[in-house]
Amino acid sequence: MQIVAATFAALAALVHVYIFYLESLAWEAPATRRTFGVTEAEARTTRSLAYNQGFYNLFLAVVTAAGIVSLGIDEAVGLALLVAGTGSMLAAALVLVTSDRSKARAALVQGLLPLVSLGAVVGAVL
């Protein structure tokens, strides 16, 4: 089950690195604006907020990647980091959907892979 957990955690981390790219590096690009449903003026106004939030997503990916790497060194540390990273990703997805129901699709994209990873972690521990 650890392989399943690590695989889905890695996929979740990649999604969050992509979100980092969109929010922090490409926020005002037309394709990014379409993805997030913001106008050019809104993107200009919220650029610094998106930049900050993008790094938050990157940090979640880094913690998750550290957990994956640590699994091979110290299983307990690896699992703890994996749960911290993917648990935070899932919590962020829940906050997103509870703050705005129209963001359910985005929350699903953000939260499904971490949820599967966490389920596999539980299966590995039990």
TrEMBL record:
InterPro entries tied to this protein: DUF1304
Spans through the membrane: 6-27, 54-73, 79-99, 106-125
Keywords, sorted A to Z: Membrane, Transmembrane, Transmembrane helix
Entry annotated with the keyword Magnesium: no
Keyword Transmembrane helix: yes
Any Pfam family the entry gives: DUF1304
Name used for this protein in its record: DUF1304 domain-containing protein
